[in-house]
Design brief:
Helix content: 25-40%
Order of helices and strands: HHHHHEEEHHEEEEEEHEEEEEH
Largest sheet: 14 strands, antiparallel
Radius of gyration: 27 Å
Strand content: 25-35%
Shape: globular
Structural class: alpha+beta
Length: 335
């Protein structure tokens, strides 16, 4: 019948709303050029709705079901996230050292690389040889970021281990002391898992803190979570330090970072304001701080400001999650 209608309508003016038999031949081209059509779908009939039907029948009261179904979907996401965390922990117990030469490592190094790489939302990779604090400070003697490394690390760990969610509990009145001959292990690769603000799914960022990555230094920038609010920082040194407590050695993942400060809005250029760009400024390396490595949220892409050597602009248009994160950290009225 459609063929007969087409033959009868040959003399009529062309109507773009009229269904065409060969329309499917152009669908791929049209999607590539213009995007998905508003009234088209790739869902396979109602078989895609089985999970929604089950939640509606078994998990809702039958009234105002939208919020209840979304809540169940969120619970499913949490279950999958926990399952993935358990899977990663099991995999880390069989972690292969990769390119490292096992003959150059001690038994403690091999043990640490296998069992101490996963710490909740982060995984540490590219382990280096254990080094004492004396050797570390001698190696970075001319680097002001490592000035008073042992004293500042001691204060940061003492404060961290007194928090409620600390993996190690210090006795009341006990003062953590780090000896000059204490050892730490450096890591130059971080896998940071985080929950997307767009779809609540778990994603992973691969971060580098390496003085020689493909023949050039690479120190990635990150968003750091703190009780006073999230902020931007550059990774300088990532490591684990073993704390002895209750006859048990517990590795604590830490990071030495260089924070960024936000430039006041009155110092923004008109172009920055029109484009909604957030301008940051590097602090002095002597003002570097220690943070728990688990406080790293994910990586961030910063673009250098040509007008100022220490100035940087946040590029929040690479992905939707970073865009939303920026609007939470700095609402539009404040940028």
């Amino acid at each position: 019948e459609l063929d007969e209608m087409i033959r009868e309508g040959n003399d009529l003016a062309k109507n773009l709303d009229f269904p065409k038999l060969h329309a499917h031949k152009h669908v791929v081209k049209h999607i590539l050029e213009k995007g998905v059509l508003r009234h088209s779908t790739t869902c396979l009939f109602e078989g895609r709705h089985k999970s929604l039907k089950k939640w509606y029948q078994n998990k809702t009261s039958g009234k105002n079901v939208d919020a209840q179904i979304l809540q169940n979907e969120f619970y499913m996401l949490v279950c999958h996230t926990i399952k993935n965390h358990v899977k990663r922990i099991k995999e880390s117990n069989h972690h292969d050292l990769g390119s490292l030469d096992r003959h150059e490592l001690t038994e403690d190094d091999v043990k640490d690389s296998k069992n101490a790489t996963s710490f909740g939302n982060i995984q540490l990779g590219a382990p280096q040889m254990r080094v004492s604090l004396e050797e570390l400070q001698f190696t970075h003697l001319n680097d002001v970021a490592f000035c008073n490394f042992r004293g500042r690390l001691e204060a940061a760990l003492d404060e961290l281990l007194r928090q409620k969610d600390s993996p190690v509990k210090l006795l009341r009145g006990f003062k953590l002391t780090i000896k000059p001959n204490s050892y730490l292990k450096e890591y130059r690769f971080i896998k940071a898992s985080y929950e997307s603000l767009v779809d609540w799914r778990a994603y992973t960022d691969y971060l580098r803190c390496n003085p020689m990555f493909y023949n050039r230094p690479r120190y990635d920038c990150v968003i750091v979570h703190s009780m006073d609010g999230d902020y931007f920082a550059r990774l300088l040194f990532v490591f684990t330090y073993v704390v002895e407590a209750d006859d048990k050695d517990t590795p604590i993942p830490m990071a030495l970072v260089q924070p960024f400060t936000t430039i006041k809005q009155e110092n923004f250029t008109k172009k920055d304001i029109d484009l909604g760009l957030l301008q940051l400024e590097e602090t002095l390396q002597a003002e570097s701080i220690f943070i728990p490595a688990r406080s790293i949220v994910h990586g961030v892409y910063l673009v250098p400001n040509n007008k100022k050597e220490t100035g940087w602009s946040v590029l929040d248009t690479l992905d939707s999650d970073m865009f939303l994160h920026m609007h939470i950290m700095y609402p539009p009225s404040n940028t």
